Amino acid sequence: MHVVILAAASHPLREPFAGGLESLTWHLVRGLRERGVEVTLFSGPGTDPDLGAHEILVEPLDLSDAARRDVAMPAERWLREHHSYLQAMLELRDRTDVDLIHNNSLHYLPIALAATVPMSMVTTLHTPPTPWLEPAIRLMDQRRAQFVAVSGHTARSWRHVTTPDVVLNGVDVDAWRPGPGGSDLVWFGRLVPEKAPHEALSIARRAGYRIRLAGPVADRDYFEGAVRPLLGPHAEYLGHLGTADLAALVGQSAATLVTPVWDEPYGLVAAESLACGTPVLGYERGGLPEFVPPHCGVLVPGGDVAEAARQVDAATGLHRVACRRQAEQHCSIDRMIDAYLEVYSRLLSPGRAA
Asked: Where is the Glycosyltransferase subfamily 4-like N-terminal domain (predicted)?
């Protein structure tokens, strides 16, 4: 089987990962190759050279002075991304050696142009409906396509336009190893308003626990205004860590706080925490309840900082071995790869496109 994977172009696929999407795609490429699948990857510049990626931004955006004077010209970054996916799809139009495309980007163009290529397409839906993707899916001939959502919650949000399979995201349980635990709480992920690390800091302070934060500062104004003022002896920011250092940090923590102020489509940090044997204390939003059972975590109503603080002791008292077992059985990369190979096989089965 020869699969082309289209990655999101916004960030390179390399450690330290910009976010869960980049981590997921990196592991998907490697996991498929380990199963003997030939994978051609299209991704953004700066990707891990070991992946042998074709750079999506193949050519510079060459605009005439007349075009640049157009008062309706959109942002150049938007144009570059649009034209890069156009270039990738035009290249695939003439390929006869590819069995299917796995569209793991967040862009509408691969879906809009799916009918122009000779191979079938699997698209993973990582987000709720967007005004770009939704119309493209409505107009698409879905006889040669399959959509996959990263959780049942995400699948339900798309069912007015398609009926996705559900393949829960996976984590590398060999890299995210169980740790001994500790006395501190941890929060990790992109430091942005929608993930609300400031609420995690408030939860820890109310509960009387020390907390450590790690992750990329993706919104500098938010970090300086809402997070930095809450740092101090009992709340430390450790920076953007690679997987090994991050797994060690999580494994040495008493519980992981997961505090999104929106419905996370999945919640990869919770799965990574469970793989380290570290219980989860999170908001009951999005896909989180689908893989964080009561014996591995405590979920409280979204945004209820006071209730979360009251539940910290309960979360830290959960059994670490049970958390690790949950990750191995339900959250592993191997399980995810198995599920995607099943999706690929169904899509390529004779008579599917009839």
From this structure: 19-174
Report helix angle 20-34 to 333-348, nearest 10.
70
Q: In this structure, are strands 54-55 and 297-300 parallel, antiparallel, or unpaired?
A: unpaired
Tens of pLDDT, residue by residue over 247-257, are 999 999 999 99
User: Any long-range contacts for 27-30 (C-beta under 8 Å, 24+ apart)?
Assistant: 27/170, 27/171, 27/172, 27/333, 27/336, 28/102, 28/104, 28/336, 28/337, 28/340, 29/5
Task: Let me know: does 194 contact 349? Beta carbons within 8 Å.
Answer: no
The pair of three-digit structure tokens given for residue 156, joined into one six-digit string:
């339900």
Nearest to 210 by CA among 230, 235, 178: 235
Domains of the chain (ranges, CATH numbers): 2-170+333-348 (3.40.50.2000), 185-330 (3.40.50.2000)
> Residue 78: its pLDDT value, please?
78
